[in-house]
UniProtKB/TrEMBL annotation:
SUPFAM superfamilies (UniProt xref): Regulator of G-protein signaling, RGS
Biological processes per GO annotation: negative regulation of signal transduction
Top-rank lineage group of the source organism: Eukaryota
PROSITE patterns found in the cross-reference section: RGS
UniProt keyword Cytoplasm present: no
UniProt keyword terms in alphabetical order: Signal transduction inhibitor
Positions of the RGS domain: 86-202
Identification of the protein by name: RGS18 protein
Protein's organism: Syrrhaptes paradoxus
Lineage summary: Eukaryota, Metazoa, Chordata, Craniata, Vertebrata
Length: 234
């Protein structure tokens, strides 16, 4: 029997072509998964970048918390000490007013200082025409029952204030403002002077940084009270 390849030589050519075609196509098939994997790797890198950005954001986020009061760089210990002389002294200085406002936010009673500030602004009105809209805004915000920032006033003071809202005068809120002022002076102000953020300012420490620092200063006995130092970090 004759060799089939001799009778049909085209079979050998066809096989050769098929083999060549297979060689050309085969690498292309292998490359497809590799190409498809690139977008996945890129997406992973993007997700990693976003996670790092979020981490950096949250690490610095604590610097803006109310408990930090104010930066030590902008308030000297001497200035902070003066805030302890009297409540009037504290409120008369912008930095002191800001620090006390932030402190009240930590106690969820910032409506008191906001009402006091609104009353101070009200008394600066130069014309009677300015009094009515300001008076109504203050009343609706701080005094009426179930106001969004209702302050704690006794019944008589609230009644007297409410009756003069339609025809307000420059002294309309004096009684209410004095009541809230005394409340802050006798209650919130002493706690402010005992708070750690204020004491840190008096001592010249930056409230946004930890009290303990490595290799930045000498440690004292008080620094180690209740703390077991980890010497491995050195």
């Amino acid at each position: 029997m004759e060799n089939p390849l001799l009778l049909f030589p085209q079979l050998n050519i066809s096989a050769s072509k098929d083999k060549s075609y297979y060689k050309v196509v085969k690498p292309a098939i292998k490359e497809e998964p590799h190409k498809a994997s690139k977008p996945g790797a890129k997406q992973k890198r993007n997700r990693l970048s976003l996670l790092l950005q979020k981490s950096e954001f949250h690490e610095g986020d604590h610097l803006g918390k109310p408990g930090n009061l104010t930066k030590a760089a902008s308030v000297s210990p001497e200035e902070a000490v003066k805030w302890g002389e009297s409540f009037d002294k504290l409120l008369s200085e912008k930095a002191g007013l800001d620090a006390f406002t932030k402190f009240l936010k930590t106690e969820f009673s910032e409506e008191n200082i906001e009402f006091w500030i609104a009353c101070e602004d009200y008394k600066k009105s130069k014309t009677a025409h300015e009094l009515l809209p300001k008076a109504k805004t203050i009343y609706e915000t701080f005094i009426r029952k179930d106001a969004p920032k209702e302050v704690n006033l006794d019944f008589q003071t609230k009644e007297v204030t409410s009756q003069s809202i339609e025809q307000p005068i420059i002294t309309t809120f004096d009684a209410a403002q004095n009541t809230v002022y005394r409340l802050m002076e006798q209650d919130s102000y002493p706690r402010f002077l005992r708070s750690d953020p204020y004491l840190n300012l008096v001592k010249g420490r930056n409230p946004s940084r930890p009290a303990l620092r490595r290799r930045s200063r000498s440690f004292t006995v008080n620094d180690f009270q209740g703390v077991r130092p980890d010497f491995t970090v050195w």
